[in-house]
Amino acid sequence: MKWKIGGKPLTSRIFLGTGRFPSPLVQNQAIEASGAEVLTFAIRRVHLDAPHDDAILQHLEGDHFIYLPNTSGASNAEEAIRIARLARASGLSDWIKVEIHADQKTLLPDPVETLKATEALVKEGFVVLPYTSDDPALARKLEEAGAAAVMPGGSPIGTGLGLLNPYNLGLIAEELRVPVVVDAGIGSAADAVQAMELGADGVLINTAIARAKDPAAMAQAMKLAVEAGRLSRMAGRIPKKKYATASSPLGLGV
Amino acid sequence: MSKHILVIGGGVIGLSAALECRHRGHEVTVLEAGTCGGQASGAAAGMLAPYAEAGEEPDALFRLCQLSLRRTADWVQKVEEESGISVGYRKNGSLQVVFHEADAFLLESKRRWLREAGAEAEVVSGNRLGQMEPGLGQGAVAALWCPEEAHVYSPDYVQALQSACRKAGVRIREQLGRLIWQGHQGDKRVKSPAGEAFEGDEVVLAAGAWSCEWEQSLGMAVPVHPIRGQICAYTGVDAPRHLVFTSQGYLVAKPNGTLVCGASEDVAGFDTRVTERGIRRLESWNKDVWPALQGEQPFHHWAGLRPATQDGFPLIGRLTRHPEVILATGHYRNGILMSPITAEIIADLVDEKSPALPLDSYHPERFAVTSY
What global pTM score does this model have? Predict the structure, then answer.
């Protein structure tokens, strides 16, 4: 079933980060196995004067991906805006993932600067997908600012700690009208299932796939997990009970 | 106890392992399908730069590379003395140059973890950077300086290793074609297509990108695959004082007066041809980094196949299902760098000594599932 971001119909619910893969072949195999249509990368790593000859992007040619460049490395709104403009000017994409780090150790997003950059870039006509903390009030403000999707973190980038605050993530998924993509912290397929069961519209994964022992196999696991989690959410789970209920009840059988 | 070791592959890994095993008193025969150093080894730029090559953290690859760098000066000296051939070893230090302000932030965090891991590393910018490397392009914002990093001239390193091996009494056989081992059928000999059979006590598989050809006979996944690297060289150009790294590639000045620029990464199977696009890729950024290249044409270009692996770590270790087989392959971008430590580890495994670092992360049998 299709869904949309910024008016663009999407099939896959996995966004894949292109950093940290052991080789371009493994990267391509993982992209294929994940079924991802949206690929994200740090603009600072890209050779913007010749993007198709870039060390990473050159391997992605011939396929119809949607590029989601990110502003990783920016430490305030001004820098992020500058980076976003560079990316658009190179003709790569008018989608932008706002990623502004509050500190180097946790790389957690700076909420105030993220909101500022989102407001400004929406006004400039970008399709803006901010990477944000799991705060529901902030997520709402980002939506009001015109974010095309909101991407709350499960846990700090690259940690694989999973979803540290499922309650908040669930609230965000419930309250927002724009798509919610859980970004960062996913460590294994179980985390992807959980994100989707909480009501997320998609997940963004990089390290958990790129640094797995078999990245293509993990990519496939994530694809299945996202599908399973979404189906499970839509199917409607049973309420949790304290005691057993016999699965072969007395009374009228079928 | 002296053993007879068959080393499959005459690249830098095979030759280094052969030399070290010979020094430890073993009888050694190197079996090479083509010419020694004829593939990735001879084509490499010879960068000994674990810090510039490192990603975001001191992972298992980093630890192996760093340990090998620390062994390099002594190893190179030994190889040069025994062979009488200079390998062009130069400890120029490296500069990882960034051209985005957003990258300066990451240099700082990399500097921090490198220092914690015992590396010398310093962030330089502004006038200081200009003084250290005056020829850098205007856009250079900052650089991470790692003074311990070095390089060798790979073709000479291969020659020196070969010569040192021969002088030490290692037998080297070349032009044998694709070598087959049928240990799973009880035949422990290594055979050439011409029907020649070689017998030893132990076999060291160091066949780089071709190691996967043994998957069937070993009865296990050997997830090593070729990634083509294309390199070009300039002559008569003012050369950088340091090894210069950027997100797109590197530049390094060789003692013979050439400036080497590498290396593109292509997925091209076992095709070793140089392509116009591959070289254009290098030319698309190198003039911005090093403006002296403006208007210059490379006088030489070449390509090699790097042995990449599924998880980015090499395959080093003795097999449990075939204890007479040791793997030493999948060194990808850093075979020259890792040759001293790999040689030491292989000789330790042959001698049944415990190696300088735990091998779990490199164990060739770590890939349990290969397909869903």
Answer: 0.90
